[in-house]
Queue: 4 jobs
Job 1
Amino acid sequence: MKDFWNPQQEAKLLAWHKMQQVADVRKPAPSFTIAREFGCQAYPLAEALVKRLNARTSGEPWVVVGKQVLDEVAKLSGYSVEQIEKSQDTPASLKAIFAMFLDSSLAEETAVFAHMREVMRGFARRGNCVLVGRGGVFAAQDLPNCIHLRLVASYEFRVQKIMTSHGLNRADAEKYIDLHQHQREDFVRRFADGQIDNPLLYHLVINNSRLPIDKVAEIVEEYMVKLRE
């Protein structure tokens, strides 16, 4: 993930933004949110889905919007994404990180989350993007052009993925999953006051351990086409 944000991604995002400035707001393009159990392949799915969708249209480019957004904000402030997620313990860091977004110098955590919600809603409302994590399903829950996805998988599948991707032994991989799953659930509770694992929030809940990512992307694309017929 540390190499996910690169000049090519930035160029795509800028191109997407310019195209969306002239998009017909009366007919918004579709967008997606992806939530997942920690260890599932959300970013590979987002990338595979965007690749498929860009291949089928010559119009506005599709882009992935996720952790890299916070990464870029963090670079400007000198803080890491992990510090942002643990920001209930460092309110001063929160104010510094999001100072560029907020008019008030006395911004509280709830105001920061409210602003992030509007940022994500802006992406989702304009369409042609895949929002990964960060409570996007709550931010865009009521938008008719937005399709909400959730990836789940067996614990064993997720442990094996983390062992492979991070070079950890089983015990460390299990600790890693438990820690990050807790952090994400806490982030969402503070951000949206909701339960991210509620299946009623989603159009599709897919078992990541049953299907390869390219097949999941194919199913999601077909679902989008059928839904918009």
Note: Residues 1-5, 88-108 have pLDDT under 50 and may be disordered.
Job 2
Amino acid sequence: MLKDLWRAETLASALPAQLKKPGPALQPQIRSSHGLEQFFSSIQGQENLSLLDFSGASQANISFITSLGYRIYSNDALRTMEEAFGGSGDFVAQQSDPERAAQFLRETLDFPDQSFDGALLWDTLQFLEPPLVDDAVERLHRILRPQSLLLAFFHAEEKAQQAPLFTYRIVDSKSMSLAPRGQSRPAKYFNNRSLEKLFQKFSSVKFFLTRDHLREVIVRR
């Protein structure tokens, strides 16, 4: 039976230490998003859809998505990542531990086949090392229904040692609020070719490169 799509997970005020570097508090920024616009325009007019949101329980996201008549399942994937791979060991190395990797996949993507009509992954995937990121994408392919979309963000600077972390909140179907959460090292650099390979089982991949060095990716199941 599908997990309760209304489950809200408590969002702590600070990110886990493994995934951030402390810095001064910054104000959220609002910006338009071609990827978000295409995601919602693709499902406009449809009813009784179920969407997966990796940004954690957010009243803004819940209110916007339910106002469209859709159901939402919220999970703070970065927090789940820290619970699985954090602690005293090396964050990256522990992603290769089969038991820890299985824990992460179980907590984030353990759903029956074709449970969702779309997924908002935000920037989560860029912090997963291979082969775990490949396993996560395989799970996504399985739990998404045919022709559904997923939206994911990747840092677009190849030589960058740190990527900014954000909390993503939906303002409307074309824009979002980005609240800074610190910085962390991406697991690897994903260019267009490597992203096409990552999502090779999906039917299409489309890219939007923004001025703030964020590659927005729309992938169709």
Note: The domain at 46-159+188-220 is CATH 3.40.50.150 (Rossmann fold).
Job 3
Amino acid sequence: MKRIHKVLLVDDEESIYKVVEQVLKRDAYELLYADNGETALECFQKESPDLVILDIMLPIIDGYEVCRTIREVSKVPIMMLSAKGEIIDKSVGFNLGADDYLVKPFSPVELALRVKALLRRSLDREHSPQVKSKLISRGDLEINCESHEVFIRKEKIYLTPKEFELLSFMVLHPSHVFTREQLFAHMWGEEYVSDTSTITVFIRKLREKIEVNPAKPQYIQTVWGIGYKFSD
């Protein structure tokens, strides 16, 4: 029997609810709904959804705080919704642990593709075989693929799930030059390679966390006109 995924939508706009309801009903997902941050956290604790679609501007508790609170206890995929599409706005959401960021207004088709991609990749992580080498060392950088812990110069640093996914992927392919489109497709699937500036946000955040001088990176290097590579 096919498992029915539960998706928690947190948004206080009726128009958004109607769009998301149509998309989820068409793909046979179970929709859970909260119109404020407080109710969202209560519903999350009670229902344990497989995916959270989270607006930023919410009554009582805003979306950023809801995201931060959920991420403290769960790795469930979180897609943030916002009318703000600037890199700085996305950076805040991703830094709190969001897996995806969708700018309003959005296409129902794109929403459906993103939901499918997030749920599929979440299941892939649950059932993927263990990496042969649990501990990867590159210079002063150490990555534990089993515990998802990262150390730089023996000091543990915090990475969001998506930051860890991007860093470990690049580390496992040293010196390989990836375009932003290739990195985006790896993290969210090839079905929709849209706003690749998202990769720029992640690269910048990773450099801030692992590089001695982010302006002159030792590990994650820019290959002008092409993309990025991890340098040994």
Note: The first helix runs from residue 14 to 26.
Job 4
Amino acid sequence: MSLSVKPNPQLAKLPVYQPGRPTEEVARELGLNAKDIIKLASNENPLGPSPKAMTAMRDAIDHLHLYPDGNAFYLKRRLADKLELTPGHLVLGNGSNEIIEFAGHAFMGPGADVVVSQYCFAIYPIVGQLFGSNIITVPARDLAHDLDAMLRAITPATRVVFVANPNNPTGTLAAPEAVERFIEQVPANVLVVMDEAYFEFLENPLDLLPRICAGRNTNLLIMRTFSKIFGLAGLRLGYGIGNPELISALEKIRQPFNINSIVQAGALAALDDEDHLEKTRSNNSAGLDYFNGELSRLGLEYVPSSANFVLAKVGDGARVFSELQKRGVITRPMAGYQLPEWIRFSVGTDAENQRCIAALEDVLKS
């Protein structure tokens, strides 16, 4: 039956984002016990949430009859203190995805160009298309951003350019000098969105915040998240960092009460749980070393990762993904990213990593 009301025309060809599969869904489909399944598909923190965050969230339950602080005053203030900037430099979103949508509302539209890299996070082009913009996809170089080519792809119609560093799904990291040169050369009327979802996993990360605090590069918007190293993916909290005038424009788009009370309480406590952060970094570093060694032993090509996941070339990615699921290991097939021979798997606990490799070796032998 045809709809009598017609959706906006750009929705007709808009792809639907496919997240990593939940354990419960795989259990139902394959008749497995959910407790026997491990999920290494969505770059989540295998150590779980911060214990301090868990306590704070339980305490917040007593006040759920009240609306949350619509401006998240205490969370913004503490986050600003940690980052050595002001609350006016920050906008909070329901995950970084909502920050991307803010940029869409503010800067995208029919006739606008949005520049992305091949193998970029799938949400960038989806949001661009949602707002009717023209997506310019720049070929990658060795599965990584070709920043010089992305600069050349900018046109007078370009409004936004996206760079994820480290990049998801490849795990590649652009050189600091290349990133700084890129930011300096992007025209001032083009918004540069630097997605730093995996920033906290880096040993010596490039710090772009001084540029913003000094009033330079007012076209720069940095995105970070509580979903990865903080282990709060289920709460959905991301944040944008930018010039206060830019942030003020995005605040006009933000819906009231988009960050609920439990999220605010948990994030505020997680910010100060340094022990949890260090354990997560240590687990991730050891996990990456393990995967690198095992993939080399199996003779598989992989991308050295600067994040909390590894991209590996396994041949028929869809078949390997499916066979791993039957063995209770959920990974991420990469055909949707035009990488059909590859799968991506997140770093888990030691036991999960070992089980993943054992299952992968079994699949490859079969």
Note: The chain has two domains: 18-48+275-365, 52-271.
